[in-house]
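The aim of this short unit is practical: by the end, you should be able to scan a pair of folded records and say something sensible about each. We start with the first protein, listed as its amino acid sequence and then its structure tokens.
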Amino acid sequence: MVKLAKLKSMMYWVIGLSVILILLIAFVYSPYYAKSGLWLLDRFVSQEVDPVAAESQKNGQLSAENELEPGSKEWVARQAYLAEVNQSLDQNDASKFLQLQQRYNLLLKMIAEQKQDELNYQLQIFSDNTLKSNIELDVNADQNYNSALSDTKSALNNSNIDSNNALDIEALFEDVMSDENQSLFEQYRQFLTDESTKIQLENDTTQASQVQAPFIYQRPAHQPHAIVILGGGLTSGEKKGEIVVNAYTKKRLEQAVEVYQSHNLPIVLSGVEAPYMQKWLEQHQIHAQFLENRSMNTCENTRFSSLLLQKQGGAPTVFLVTDAYHMARAKRLFAINGIATIPVIAPLPNMLTEWQPSKQNLMHSRRATYEILATMRDVWFGESNCREIP
């Protein structure tokens, strides 16, 4: 009797555990497991922006011009443009932004044409001198060299500057350049704001909104400054050896295109997938201004993208494009790096069913489980697999 009782008890346990296991499997294959995981992530993952890290992004003057030579005409033009934009912001006058952007583009075009004319003139002089030097004797070239050397020495002697004192010469050079730049600075500001000057500007607002200005004008901190798209992986293309974005990344890009068409903000592509994401966008007549192509995981996505945005002038708030399960962890890590995010949810390749268990729900369940475990790891142990710099 004792053995029979134990056998019955064991059978009940087996049946009970089997029922629990069947219910758990059904729950995982149902849409409610993924929805529950998503609810937990959205409710309990902190997204408070680190105030110290946010200081590095607070300027909010995102610019694609990171290699302008200080003192060049393009550099002075940008300073004039920034001054006018900031003045408009101080006066709460946003109506001038589009006109300033168009005038700035026109100013850059005029500077480029002027530089090309100067280059053509120098090439013409060089060509004439080369032709002349081919006719003259070598001895005349030596005499010209000696004469030029004598003139240089004479100029130094008459300048009342000690030729051995490099600091004095450098200081004089900086003063002269400073005066010249200041004059250019005022001329460019007048050009940007002089409404009496008849300048042919773009009248079509649709086309004007698509102007690709090198400088993205400053915006209030709470408004998005850029669209950040996190890579979701790569796959093999139809051709042999071809690499293309996978279904996850493609969905994120498609969602980002919709945001770009309505907001026309600069795009940041993050992840080793970035070059392939750029190729996909260019096939849709869109060009991303910033590529961060070194990150290998979400922590590096957020850290390296934040460093890139900081270097380019700062972006305190951005649109963040990724899938719903990845969003909470990505937002938290961006907040740690000083950037507030506005979520743009990209769908997964397979949609959840409405209520019934289905194999296609398993993808969502796996994503939810992974993100919950990854977030718990990050909170409790830190991001141990995250490089400090690219």
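Turning to the second protein, read its sequence before its tokens, just as you did above.
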Amino acid sequence: MNTNVTSAKHLSLFGFFALTATMVMTVYEYPTFASSGISLVFYLVVAGIFWFLPVALCAAEMATIEGWDKGGVYTWSGKSLGEEWGFANIFFQWFQITVGFVTMIYFILGALSYVLDWPALNNDPLVRFIGVMIIFWGLTLSQFGGTRMTAVISKFGFVVGIAIPALILFALTLGFFVTGGISDMTLSLDAMLPDFTQLNTLVVFVSFILGYAGIEASAPHANEMTNVKRDYPIAIILLVLLAIALNTIGGIAIGAVIPEASLGLSTGVIQGFEGLFGHFWQHTEWAVRIMAILIAFGVCAEVSAWVVGPSWGMLEAGKAGLLPAKLAETNSADVPINFLIVQGLIVSVWAAVLTFGGGANVSFFTAISLTVVIYVVGYIIFFVAYFKVVTCHQDLPRAFEIPGGHFVKLLVALSGLVISVLALGISFIPPSQLSSERAASEYMTILVISFLVTVCLPFVIYHYMRRTSA
């Protein structure tokens, strides 16, 4: 078994862009955006400019520092704040996706339940759990052949499962309004601005943060690009612009044809296509089923990209002695199979907790919020690390720098840090959709316990591994 990764330079600009896009652009978030009404435009633009763009810019600069192109946040935070914080950062980035996988696959199952006309696949907890297991483990096994296969799946998944459905959704929405369709969503400039006197305004904003999370996770693949110094910054800046545009169009498209009261969290995109196709033609179930299959494939590509993405950073930590030696071993394709198996077991546990721990909405909202709070802690460390880079390591050569000088760099990082801290605090407020006291109690219990255990884990592991290796 190999313990050293020697990645070939095989990723083109589009290949890296597609790999990153499938990790960031999440069509299953459209219904969540749509539930905010036309104010989704405000949320998406604010979150995009003041959080997503700072993450992208800071990641671009740190990833292209000479010698920092491997390991992602583990390397960036480790070299700037110390190894313990680097390990904690990559651990949070990796661990949050073990929860996020469940959210992604919930959407796939919702789409397939429509295609197969099998409601139990989305509503029956046991059937739902079995579905999560089959899809996740199948995609995990598909990654054992290396990142070349992941890149192929990502390219195909981006085009077929994200780009094509988004274009069709845009065309149908444009046609809907041109032909006199009346929107169920209030479309006015006054309605675009949220009511800041309502606490729920802040709670809703957190879901928009999740819609943009993940752009930095592809950084460990930067060293596989044919021209990282030129292509990496270009890819992430283009992705920021495209993500804002497509999320806005997707949210408006769903909200225009589906009343909020009947909008399903895991089936809302399919409901949207059903409403839009139904506006023009009768008996369009076949067309909706095709779209459901395409989108489900796109989310499958997203899952496959995330299966191996953060694991490369964890592998760097393993090579430094912070994981058991067996977990740091790789196969002939440089894939850490043992680590991916452990990851799969953890995902299986989360799937059981989230699927059987409460009703469908409780499970979905808890999965989203838990993903956010775990991830946001990692982003707080990420931005603090960038502050340290700017103030103490400005002399290190890098291929990309945030333009505007020292003050602009600090301002960009401060924007991302403030929003990250705000998101962490308000994520513990139960969503208004959980109207019953029992549902809110289940939500808080699962969320708080899971969060506290997760925050302590990397520091316990770090000190244990360092003590045993001393």
